[in-house]
Amino acid sequence: MRLPLLITAFIAYFCVLQSLPIGSLGKKASLWVMLGIPGIWWIDLQIDGIKKGSLAMHHSTRLPGPGSVIASSFTSPIDALYLAAIFDPIFTVSYPFTCKVQQITVAQAILRAFAGPEIKPPENSRLIDMATLIKRHPNSPIVVFPECTTTNGKGILQMSPSLVTVSAVTRIFPVSLRYSPADITTPIPHSYRSFLWNLLSKPTHCIRVRIAESILLPMSSLNNHNKIPNTTNYDKNRPRPGPADRHPSYDYNYFDTLDAKLADSFVDLDASLTNGEQALLNQVGESLARLGRVRRVGLGAKDKQQFVKLWTTGKRK
């Protein structure tokens, strides 16, 4: 009974209402209707350093707002739907081997939770660094999924370097989203049926939201960008993506021209980060692990891609 309602609400909003001048409040109300149909009403919200009942006193510095970045965990299509209903942000896609991101819509962010891990951007995709994206959308927060792919919520994958392209004054808020029951995650690609069954077969669901204190890019990292990896596949004449003073601009995907192995590309990019940038990524990863009460793992999107191949092969047998 709820499935037709959910599909109708989804189509009505993303095909009709989203293009109408209904304002931010109207959009949020429509998104909350979609959350309410499967019974997602209970929100357990906790913010680092804030006692219950005192949020209004610290709202401007403790919650993501315009000009800030939300570094969110990524386990379910509900992640994007909830973040859109609360913050009305700009969504992006991060990749493991580039410091730039790809801007997407709310619907694309929801559907991406069902997609397999992508190691590199699609051909001819337009990439942009975070500092430029924030300047283009000063009235909205920016959502980044730094793990680059969905997980089962039991560990934090390696962080994408896209977060290091923010300016030194941009606040990054690690946000952990967990669900009870925990069976509405989509770590396996194309799991539409199981997700909808688990979502609609239970009367209610609870979202456990944890927001960490904001993190800033260390100032020292802005003054140390001379580390260029010594590799034949790295274009030394091409500016390395970075904060606002590192030539922020749109860029087309240049990975299709590289012949290097993806693993080598990861090592090269990792070596090009400064100590401050590495510390920023580690701090975001540690915050997400602490908020979710899980551990960081030494795996990334490429490892999940290999796992999915083995999983798919095993199911076919």
UniProtKB/TrEMBL annotation:
Where are the membrane-spanning stretches? none
Region called Disordered, residue ranges: 227-248
Any single biological process term in GO: lipid metabolic process
Task: Point out the signal peptide segment.
Answer: 1-19
Q: Please note every region of biased composition (Basic and acidic residues).
A: 235-248
Q: Which keywords belong to this entry?
A: Acyltransferase, Lipid metabolism, Membrane, Signal, Transferase, Transmembrane, Transmembrane helix
Name under which the protein is recorded: Phospholipid/glycerol acyltransferase domain-containing protein
Organism expressing this protein natively: Emergomyces pasteurianus Ep9510
